[in-house]
Amino acid sequence: MTSSESAEASSDDGFHARQDRPPMDTDKFWRIVDAAKLESGGICQQQVEVTVQKLSQLEPAEIVAFDELMVRLFKDAYRWDLWGAAYLINEGCSDSGFYGFRAWLITQGRQVYEAALRDPDSLADHHDVLRLAEFEVLECEDFLSATDMAYEKVTGQLPSFEYDRPRAVLQGKTWEFDDDREMQRRYPRLWAVVQTRCRDASQVRWDES
């Protein structure tokens, strides 16, 4: 994925894979993601590097197919309820922040990704959410460039992925993210995690003053 703009640059909300290229096997996609996470310890930049290494062992058509499926998963997570969860977890989340958060969500593997799509509040159990320090955020936008880097490494050419990358349509209904009562209602477990984090940070500041 070359950029946020190129990834969402078409005028419709469908997804059209080329018929002459087989799609990436979903299980294989997640095996690559999970293996890269395990080998990198889940550290974003290291996970990107390991992902590039693993994709570089594939044929160019498979790298393109990996990118195609990644784009689909990325767009499927373009939802108000996930944005609200990201806003709560990261204590604020802009458009670009949500872009990076969705990429991070994919890097966490199939189980975390699919659970979050079913119930964003399930992220309250995630170890990174539980351990997140004040002023830190969960984002990994560079993961979206792994296919570009792997393709160039294998072919010696910059990628020009020949399939439609339609504009994502934000799914669901919006609400005011700064409405504490509504956020607590929608994400009771995440709310509790974040409140505990804020209390702990306040205690540390108090102890250091």
Gist of the model:
With 209 residues, this protein is mostly helical. The chain contains 11 helices and no strands.
Which descriptors apply to this entry?
11 helices, elongated, mainly alpha, disordered N terminus, 0% strand, 209 residues
Find the structural class using helix and strand composition: mainly alpha
Radius of gyration: 18 Å
Sequence of secondary-structure elements: HHHHHHHHHHH
**Beta strands, count:** 0
Rough outline = elongated
* Total helical elements: 11
Structural domains: how many: 1
The mean pLDDT is: 86
**Uncertain stretches:** 2-19
Please report the distance between the alpha carbons of the first and last residues.
Answer: 46 Å
- Could you tell me the strand content as a percent range? under 5%
Structure description:
- By secondary structure, this protein is mostly helical.
- It has one domain (4-208).
- Helix content is 59%, strand content 0%.
- The longest helix is centred in the last third of the chain and has 21 residues, at 188-208.
Write the layout of secondary structure elements.
Blueprint: H1 4-7, H2 26-40, H3 44-55, H4 60-76, H5 80-89, H6 95-107, H7 110-118, H8 127-131, H9 146-155, H10 180-186, H11 188-208
Helix pairs in contact: 2-3, 3-9, 4-9, 10-11
